[in-house]
Amino acid sequence: MLRLIGQRLLVAIPTMLLVSIVVFGLQKLLPGDPVLTTAGDARDPQTLTYLREKYHLNEPVPVQYVRWLGAALHGDLGQSLRTGQSVTALIGQKLPVTLELSLLAMGVALLVGIPAGIISAVRRGTVVDLGANLVALSGLSVPHFWLGVLLILVFAVNLGWFPAGGFVPLNEGLGGNLVALTLPALVLGAGLAAALMRHTRGAMLSVLRSDYVRTARAKGLLPPTIVLKHAFRNALVPIVTVSTLLFGDLLGGAVLTEQVFTIPGFGKMLVDAVFTRDYAVVQGVVLCVALAFILLNMVADLLYLALNPRLRSA
């Protein structure tokens, strides 16, 4: 296991280096001057010169990259051009919000997608299977922003069961926090549940045709035992893969949902930073998302070993 972690870390280092080069290089190609945006309407030449010197924007691009990378390795991702706050501190404030929303959405997806996929595979070709596939395809096709607006109209405006937007921190009450995140979690979880249902169904159909499943049936084992103990356990490896990747998508892909529900999370911070050309924030967010994907892939590899002991000797 330690050897596997070491191998993944060796791959992660050049990957993160490449991501940092791409992110830093691409943001330099974006149109507009962030200093002009920061200076406001006055745009005094002395102010512009001061800001460029303060943020080292008057130096050559390679020098800027080396300076930024060196600071990032020590946990300093720079300062926001718009607010002057530390990017590391901003990420520390916004990431827990998106992380909590992602965990709730992932919980919805797991509770709905996996059972639906199992039932659809077991009842293959029946009305239940066709209905589950229809719902899953609908969940994959419906845009998040449209579903979010629809849920706000029905459950917030007409019924008044949930707030139309906003966020309540955990330290102000668990009940209010969960109520505020219910609708956005359902919006994000619907698409994830649909994708997870399709992958679970495919993995289960493949396993249910295996010889050991036919042997279990020949022995007269009960169908629930065959499906859950023999089939589902062996289908978990691809399901774990999809789940970890989907969770990584949530951390970087909750942008539209956070905008619709005005949730002050990671995605909304990224959108605001792009519109204001706050490059330091954009770079920090993208690096964190890339690091999250790498860590989630390592977690998935470790779960493979726990779920399939045969891989430990490979």
Structural overview:
77% of the residues lie in helices and 0% in strands. The chain has two domains: 2-73, no CATH class; 97-313, MetI-like (MetI-like fold), CATH 1.10.3720.10. By secondary structure, it is mainly alpha-helical. α6 (127-141) crosses α8 (174-208), α10 packs antiparallel against α13 (279-307) and α12 packs antiparallel against α13 (279-307). The model has no long low-confidence stretch (mean pLDDT 79).
Q: How would you summarize this macromolecular structure in one to three sentences?
A:
This protein is an all-alpha fold and 314 residues long.
Strand content: under 5%
Query: Please, how many domains?
Result: 2
Poorly predicted segments: none
- Give the oligomeric state of the chains in this entry, treating copies of one chain as homo and distinct chains as hetero: single chain
Largest sheet properties? none
- Name of the level-1 CATH class of the largest domain: Mainly Alpha
Q: Gyration radius, to the nearest Å?
A: 24 Å
Descriptive key words:
13 helices; 2 domains; 314 residues; globular; MetI-like fold; mainly alpha
Give the arrangement of secondary structure elements:
Blueprint: H1 2-29, H2 34-39, H3 45-54, H4 61-73, H5 87-122, H6 127-141, H7 144-158, H8 174-208, H9 211-218, H10 223-253, H11 255-260, H12 266-275, H13 279-307
Helix pairs in contact: 1-13, 5-6, 5-8, 5-10, 5-13, 6-8, 7-8, 8-10, 9-10, 10-13, 12-13
